[in-house]
Amino acid sequence: MKSILKHPSIRSAARRAHRTSCNTRFVNTLHQPGDPRVAARRADAPFRLAIIGSGPSGFYTAYRVQSKLPTARIDMYEALPVPFGLVRFGVAPDHPEVKFCINKFDEVARHPNFKYIGNTPIGSTSLPFSSLLPNYNAILLSYGASKDKTLKLPGESTLLGIHSARAFVGWYNGLPEHRDLNPNLEGNDGKAVVIGQGNVALDVARILLTGVDGLRKTDITEYALEALSRSKIKEVEVVGRRGPLQAAFTIKEVRELMTLPSVGFEPVPPSVIPQDTSTLPRAKRRLMDTINKGTKSYPLEKNWKLSFFNSPTAFLSSPSNPDQLSHIRFEKTAPVEGTNGDKVVGTGEHKDVYASLAFRSIGYKSEPISGMVEAGIPFDEKNGVVCNALGRVARPTPEGDIQVPGMYTTGWVRRGPTGVIASTMMDAFDAGDNIVNDWLGGVEFLGKEGDVRMGWEAVKREHSRIGLKAVHWSDWDKIDKAEKERGMKLGKEREKFGTEEEMMAIV
Amino acid sequence: MPPPRGSSIFRNLQSRCSNRLFYAADSILPPCTRPTPTRTPVHPGAYNRTFATRTLRPLPSSIYLRQFTTTSYLSHGHLTPPKPGEELKVTFVTKEGNEFTFEVAEGDNLLDIGQAHDLEMEGACGGSCACSTCHVIVEDQEMYDLLEEPDDDENDMLDLAFGLTETSRLGCQVKMKKDIDGLKVKLPAMTRNLQASDFK
Ligand SMILES: Cc1cc2nc3c(=O)[nH]c(=O)nc-3n(C[C@H](O)[C@H](O)[C@H](O)COP(=O)(O)OP(=O)(O)OC[C@H]3O[C@@H](n4cnc5c(N)ncnc54)[C@H](O)[C@@H]3O)c2cc1C
Ligand code: FES
């Protein structure tokens, strides 16, 4: 069987390896008019798709492909034993409605032509990316963003009391990687600072400020509930480098914080936020109005505030306790003229904010899976995305982008770590449409035309040789059931297993 | 059993050709052939789906959707069949421009109606006003004004809806009532394939 690595265009792409950024202009399909390969495929031609990652982007793409090409055989590989990506490990426990999409994913997973292969990270440490290539017609990269951006500031990685929002969110949501984070919420100053102004930052603020009574019935982990019940946090400051019009959070999350019982909002000074909002576009206008309206009273028992135009420069400790964060130094910023406030510069004026607890919430980050770049998939290091044109993996060339045969991408790894499930869904539908249209349209895919691709049937052998234990959907059913039963005993929806060992013990 | 007209494979075959627009920049588009629809059951209801709060069944074969036809309502999952003489009409216009009119009972919401009839309409949050995937556009401003005003929560989600218009609503929040009999809503495209702005 011909390896994709022998494709001449792919070898040269691999040489370029990690690109700093890719500027996709348009995508060339793989054939030219008159090319003998351009023959439409029949809808019943056997088609095997590997999906890497079981978050909403992977599942919604599978759903789309299933509905347009029901004969497609889809294998979904997931690093963790359990499925659903950030719907399970990101979305806040007090947003159960957002997780409703799991019902759709469950339905997709029960399709007779679908196979879930959990507990199987693709990459060098486990199942090599290259082992998928000879066994599928197409591969969908939907593995999300499993790292987070850092500020690279003094003290950031050495002082106690500084956490990434990703780790904190993972901790309260039962992500095994962060099971043992144990953030100290009992500092006597009762203050936490969140750096960054997206929805994740507001999730962190809300979880810190919501009383545990509001969380007890949710699927938040018991250990987090216990730690939060001892929390002394009374004040949360959410700081952004730019102004209110540039903040990435959305109105629903702001409104939730404004309506938390016994939580006040410190008004934003009128000099910082537009007062006459009538000329703003609808979404911005409603957001500014909601911030300006604030809470009915302030201060209350617990409080929060939004600080704008402040950029952190250092995390500092006090001489009496040199290992522990005591304050954060910020430099005031000012908008650069002519950029509509999108760019800011430091003004040279500094201030210190005292807090023993800080969360860095400046974004998630994707990285290339090892072996992926070697297989001809260009990765844009600067933006942390797979180079693509509307979800078709594309290799930038001076003449335009050349589609990499059989490779597709969607979700956060395609467009960067922003957007809600609705936008991820649209993105995934695009990917699904592209895959099916390209397939039926006769575009070149992996391997030679007419090759029989065996999918999991073949990969399985290598999988067991490496000594991995695959988790299939029926196994997830067992884990799911066990988690719900644990939850029932505690009067909550579900009590997640916090470690992979516990999950695997059920299987 | 042939797939119902209006089911996903049919819509797909129709939409494939419109995807030409996407390729406008390059002259090497795949040939826009129309393969014959497969006989495999295509719509998701063809295998058992169990929702926490809803159960959808495949459409009975007798009520294939037809263009510009009024389909009388039979037993669709959780929708209440309208009492004779009290049927309300509602029309959905798909993104391809096909119109489907249904007779429904007072109180049914647009998301449930659309999904029960297998229209391409998602309800990612199960109708709890937390996702905006059920976005619909009311065709007629006067009809829009007759609807109860959206509350803050609905407006908050609409703010995130893709392709928001002055007469946008969330399908899961609009319930059929006598005074909006004859309501006509458009379903916005759920993909961005045709958006040139994506070529940033
Ligand atoms: C804290 C937080 C809160 C959020 N809250 C909301 C909300 O309230 N409402 C809303 O609409 N959206 C919310 N979102 C956004 C939503 O979660 C994302 O839009 C969506 O999950 C992105 O989907 P994805 O499939 O691209 O990535 P992910 O959901 O991250 O899925 C990627 C999957 O790939 C797996 N994976 C990674 N590497 C590998 C590998 N090498 N091999 C195999 N598998 C791998 C991961 O384990 C993961 O399961 C939130 C996001 C975050 C971070
Ligand atoms: S279904 Fe989610 S908002 Fe209507």
TrEMBL record, chain A:
Top-level lineage group: Eukaryota
Enzyme class: oxidoreductase
Main location: mitochondrion
GO MF terms, alphabetically ordered: oxidoreductase activity
Binding of FAD, residues: S57, E78, L86, I122, W412, G419, V420, I421
Subcellular location, record wording: Mitochondrion
Enzyme nomenclature, EC number: 1.18.1.6
Cofactor(s) recorded in Swiss-Prot or TrEMBL: FAD
GO-annotated cellular components: mitochondrion
Catalyses which reaction(s): 2 reduced [adrenodoxin] + NADP(+) + H(+) = 2 oxidized [adrenodoxin] + NADPH
Residues given in the record as NADP(+) binding sites: Q197, G198, N199, V200, R241, R242, E253, G419
Keyword Signal: no
InterPro entries: FAD/NAD-bd_sf, Ferredox_Rdtase, Ferredox_Rdtase_adrenod
Keywords: FAD, Flavoprotein, Mitochondrion, NADP, Oxidoreductase
PANTHER family xref list: GLUTAMATE SYNTHASE 1 [NADH], CHLOROPLASTIC-LIKE (PTHR48467:SF1)
Family per record: Belongs to the ferredoxin--NADP reductase type 1 family.
Protein name: NADPH:adrenodoxin oxidoreductase, mitochondrial
Organism of origin: Arthrobotrys flagrans
TrEMBL record, chain B:
Organism, as annotated: Arthrobotrys flagrans (Nematode-trapping fungus)
InterPro entries in the cross-refs: 2Fe-2S_ferredoxin-like_sf (IPR036010), 2Fe-2S_ferredoxin-type (IPR001041), Adrenodoxin-like (IPR001055), Adrenodoxin_Fe-S_BS (IPR018298), Beta-grasp_dom_sf (IPR012675)
Residue ranges of domain 2Fe-2S ferredoxin-type in the record: 88-191
GO MF, any single term: 2 iron, 2 sulfur cluster binding
Gene Ontology cellular component list: mitochondrion
Alphabetic keyword roster: 2Fe-2S, Iron, Iron-sulfur, Metal-binding
Protein name, UniProt field: 2Fe-2S ferredoxin-type domain-containing protein
A Pfam family annotated for this UniProt entry: Fer2
Family the UniProt entry places it in: Belongs to the adrenodoxin/putidaredoxin family.
